């Protein structure tokens, strides 16, 4: 049984359909990249998986937690789904450790004694064990994004969504963030990511999903998608970014 | 025909002035704390898509911001007894200040709340935090930090506005001044001293609020 199962997902912004019937299954430990042109619906799709975008139709199921278009309380789903954003979105008034500890403290009511140890564990995992008491604006973009990853991991999600996590970074800071994502993948974390880092996607992902005009146009293992694209749209997309 | 200044004419009224200043401070503490608390609650209500609450808060803010403080005070003190609600001078004065500051601080704090980037709220949502947890832990402190100077000024304005409460015989500083000059006819000396007292209170209040802001928003040092 898949860990993440999307069935018939539809979503419109006003009269503009963005997702037109998406079916996607992701198994535990799989790393899936959503690729496609801007406006193809890949970020919106990612955001539906933890309820940041409400769906108009379809069913989302993550580790047995099912929601459909009628559900409004999405916190049970969000407990299973972590998310890392393009713009990091750290809480600026809290230190790196406090950013990591906040949700375990207020949502899971973790005991104070465990919280600091949790922050240390998570920040060491992303290579920032020496930046516990730094505030976000005292960290580089790459470091901020790694804190954001640690913050998500502290809630022990079953799947982590990554929305263009390196797009806002200076080129020399991209590698350190990708190294952390790669390590998560190696450790068996289930990952669904929107990315423009094609080389990274090719090396790390088990499955590439090419989206076009709100539909999954083509998908498969990276080798197949890159070396033998089946459709003209994918060929053009790959050629355009080549 | 030169006016002979005679500040000694105030001797014997020191206790009255001190008592008046004490009441002004009491009114300001009550009005400031409860008014800002209402402002925080009001800003929270207006930031939520709740069908009834948000318009009710909006109406409260508009009514208070578009009517004179003196009329609000008279309404509470002279108007409400018609409905069987009798308030003492201090109660009416304190309530008027709470209601007044509550409306202004709702608007001020709301501006701070709106300045918080949407992404930070989405990040908190994605961590399964409830709306109230998000407001309290993610939104409120950065929002207050942004508008702290404006909020501090409003608290000072309300303290100075408390002088109006002399009109319902709340025995605050201005009431004391009016009383003294009606006895010794030394208006210049009395109001000169009271002006200095208000000035001192304002400077003290601004300093306290600035220290409070530092304590609330200050970062711990690290190596």
From TrEMBL, chain A:
<keyword id="KW-0813">Transport</keyword>
<keyword id="KW-0029">Amino-acid transport</keyword>
<dbReference type="Pfam" id="PF00005">
    <property type="entry name" value="ABC_tran"/>
</dbReference>
<dbReference type="InterPro" id="IPR003439">
    <property type="entry name" value="ABC_transporter-like_ATP-bd"/>
</dbReference>
<dbReference type="InterPro" id="IPR003593">
    <property type="entry name" value="AAA+_ATPase"/>
</dbReference>
<feature type="domain" description="ABC transporter">
    <location>
        <begin position="4"/>
        <end position="238"/>
    </location>
</feature>
<dbReference type="GO" id="GO:0005886">
    <property type="term" value="C:plasma membrane"/>
</dbReference>
<comment type="similarity">
    <text>Belongs to the ABC transporter superfamily.</text>
</comment>
<dbReference type="GO" id="GO:0005524">
    <property type="term" value="F:ATP binding"/>
</dbReference>
<keyword id="KW-0547">Nucleotide-binding</keyword>
<dbReference type="GO" id="GO:0015424">
    <property type="term" value="F:ABC-type amino acid transporter activity"/>
</dbReference>
<dbReference type="InterPro" id="IPR027417">
    <property type="entry name" value="P-loop_NTPase"/>
</dbReference>
<dbReference type="InterPro" id="IPR017871">
    <property type="entry name" value="ABC_transporter-like_CS"/>
</dbReference>
<keyword id="KW-0472">Membrane</keyword>
<keyword id="KW-1003">Cell membrane</keyword>
<dbReference type="GO" id="GO:0016887">
    <property type="term" value="F:ATP hydrolysis activity"/>
</dbReference>
<dbReference type="InterPro" id="IPR050086">
    <property type="entry name" value="MetN_ABC_transporter-like"/>
</dbReference>
<protein>
    <submittedName>
        <fullName>Amino acid ABC transporter ATP-binding protein, PAAT family</fullName>
    </submittedName>
</protein>
<dbReference type="InterPro" id="IPR030679">
    <property type="entry name" value="ABC_ATPase_HisP-typ"/>
</dbReference>
<keyword id="KW-0067">ATP-binding</keyword>
Automatic annotation (TrEMBL), chain B:
<dbReference type="GO" id="GO:0022857">
    <property type="term" value="F:transmembrane transporter activity"/>
</dbReference>
<dbReference type="InterPro" id="IPR035906">
    <property type="entry name" value="MetI-like_sf"/>
</dbReference>
<dbReference type="InterPro" id="IPR043429">
    <property type="entry name" value="ArtM/GltK/GlnP/TcyL/YhdX-like"/>
</dbReference>
<dbReference type="Pfam" id="PF00528">
    <property type="entry name" value="BPD_transp_1"/>
</dbReference>
<keyword id="KW-0472">Membrane</keyword>
<keyword id="KW-0812">Transmembrane</keyword>
<keyword id="KW-1133">Transmembrane helix</keyword>
<comment type="similarity">
    <text>Belongs to the binding-protein-dependent transport system permease family. HisMQ subfamily.</text>
</comment>
<keyword id="KW-1003">Cell membrane</keyword>
<feature type="transmembrane region" description="Helical">
    <location>
        <begin position="69"/>
        <end position="87"/>
    </location>
</feature>
<dbReference type="GO" id="GO:0043190">
    <property type="term" value="C:ATP-binding cassette (ABC) transporter complex"/>
</dbReference>
<keyword id="KW-0813">Transport</keyword>
<dbReference type="InterPro" id="IPR010065">
    <property type="entry name" value="AA_ABC_transptr_permease_3TM"/>
</dbReference>
<feature type="domain" description="ABC transmembrane type-1">
    <location>
        <begin position="21"/>
        <end position="209"/>
    </location>
</feature>
<feature type="transmembrane region" description="Helical">
    <location>
        <begin position="190"/>
        <end position="209"/>
    </location>
</feature>
<dbReference type="GO" id="GO:0006865">
    <property type="term" value="P:amino acid transport"/>
</dbReference>
<protein>
    <submittedName>
        <fullName>Polar amino acid transport system permease protein</fullName>
    </submittedName>
</protein>
<dbReference type="InterPro" id="IPR000515">
    <property type="entry name" value="MetI-like"/>
</dbReference>
<feature type="transmembrane region" description="Helical">
    <location>
        <begin position="21"/>
        <end position="45"/>
    </location>
</feature>
């Amino acid at each position: 049984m898949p860990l993440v199962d999307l069935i018939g997902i539809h979503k419109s912004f006003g009269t503009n359909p963005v997702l037109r019937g998406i079916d996607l299954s992701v198994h535990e430990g799989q790393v899936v990249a959503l690729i496609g042109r801007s406006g193809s619906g890949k970020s919106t799709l990612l955001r539906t998986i933890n309820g940041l975008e409400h769906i108009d139709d379809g069913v989302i199921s993550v580790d047995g937690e099912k929601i459909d278009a009628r559900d409004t309380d999405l916190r049970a789903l969000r407990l299973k789904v972590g998310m890392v954003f393009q713009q990091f979105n750290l809480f600026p008034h809290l230190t790196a450790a406090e950013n990591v500890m906040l949700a375990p403290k207020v949502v899971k009511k973790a005991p104070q004694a465990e919280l600091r140890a949790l922050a240390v564990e998570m920040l060491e995992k992303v290579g920032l064990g020496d930046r516990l008491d730094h505030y976000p604006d005292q960290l580089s973009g790459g470091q901020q994004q790694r804190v954001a990853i640690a913050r998500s991991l502290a809630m022990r999600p079953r799947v982590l969504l990554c929305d263009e996590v390196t797009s806002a970074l200076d080129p020399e800071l991209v590698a350190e963030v990708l190294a952390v994502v790669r390590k998560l993948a190696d450790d068996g974390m289930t990952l669904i990511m929107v990315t423009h880092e094609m080389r990274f996607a090719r090396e790390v992902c088990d499955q590439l999903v090419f989206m076009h005009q709100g539909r999954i146009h083509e998908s498969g293992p990276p080798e197949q998608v890159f070396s033998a694209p089946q459709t003209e749209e994918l060929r053009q997309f790959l050629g355009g970014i080549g | 025909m030169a006016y002979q200044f005679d500040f000694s004419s105030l001797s014997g009224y020191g206790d009255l002035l001190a008592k008046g200043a004490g009441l002004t401070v009491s009114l300001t503490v009550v009005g400031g704390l409860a008014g800002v608390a209402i402002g925080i609650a009001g800003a929270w209500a207006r930031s939520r898509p709740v069908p009834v609450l948000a318009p009710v808060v909006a109406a409260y803010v508009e009514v208070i911001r578009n009517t004179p403080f003196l009329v609000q005070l008279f309404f509470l003190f002279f108007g409400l007894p018609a409905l069987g609600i009798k308030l003492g001078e201090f109660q009416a004065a304190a309530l008027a200040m709470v209601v007044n500051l509550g409306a202004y601080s709702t608007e001020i704090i709301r501006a701070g709340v709106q300045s918080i980037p949407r992404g930070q709220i989405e990040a908190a949502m994605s961590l399964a935090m409830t709306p109230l947890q998000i407001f309290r832990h993610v939104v409120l402190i950065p929002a207050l930090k942004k508008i702290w100077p404006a909020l501090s000024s409003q608290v000072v304005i309300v303290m100075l506005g408390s002088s109006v409460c002399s009109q319902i015989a709340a025995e605050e500083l201005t009431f004391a001044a009016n009383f003294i000059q009606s006895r010794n006819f030394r208006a210049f000396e009395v109001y000169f001293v009271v002006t200095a007292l208000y000035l001192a209170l304002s400077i003290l209040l601004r300093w306290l609020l600035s220290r409070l802001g530092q304590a609330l928003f200050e970062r711990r040092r690290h190596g």
